[in-house]
Amino acid sequence: MPAAPFPDLTRPGTLVIGTRHADGPDRQRALVEAESGALATPPPGLAAVSWFLSTDGETVLTLAQWDDDTAVPLAGPPRYRLDRSLAEEHETRVPGCLITAAFDVDGPERQRHFTDAVIAAQPREGGHPGAVSAHFLHSVDGSRVLLYTEWTSAEAHQEAAEAGDHDKGHELFSGTPGVRLTHGGRFHLRHALRWGPAR
């Protein structure tokens, strides 16, 4: 499959993000091929879908971007909206790796408090040179926060972790009342489809 750009999370709309166990790299790729092939005629309101494969070969993450909120299926994976993003104003580096951390939280106030605390903990003089951007996604029902971070490579993220760059963030992840880390992952983009404006 040809290379595709990472999704633009700053575009207006609703994000539907889900993960599934894939039982190995071959199954990961087969899931993506089957799902992308079934979207030859996408439903109205669906603007783009991106599929990511976890580097451990066990998970597929699907990110669907909907322009028309009324068309988003009520059943299925959680629905998110972008709360805030951190990125350099004229960022030109191309992401090569997605790192996620998902949290259950005790309501919308906790969503806001936790996001504020994580942003306040970021280094003022810029972070690791491999960190491209960070996006804070809040579930529409107020029960979740998804930290979606783009890196130049998995190696850059590992280097930052080994250097202790994430220690302050991990303290917040484990020590903030009303916030519970549920899962996270390291992913590479496998495939993406775009359809432009809502039909």
TrEMBL record:
Matches recorded under SUPFAM superfamilies: Dimeric alpha+beta barrel
Superkingdom of this protein's organism: Bacteria
Region (Disordered): 1-24, 158-177
Annotated Gene3D superfamilies: 3.30.70.100
UniProt biased composition (Basic and acidic residues): 158-171
Domain ABM: start-end pairs: 108-171
Keywords, ordered alphabetically: Monooxygenase, Oxidoreductase
Any single Pfam family the record assigns to this protein: ABM
Keyword set includes Oxidoreductase: yes
Residue spans crossing the bilayer: none
Keyword Repeat recorded: no
Entry GO MF terms: monooxygenase activity
Name recorded for this polypeptide: Antibiotic biosynthesis monooxygenase
Phylogenetic placement of the source organism: Bacteria, Bacillati, Actinomycetota, Actinomycetes, Kitasatosporales
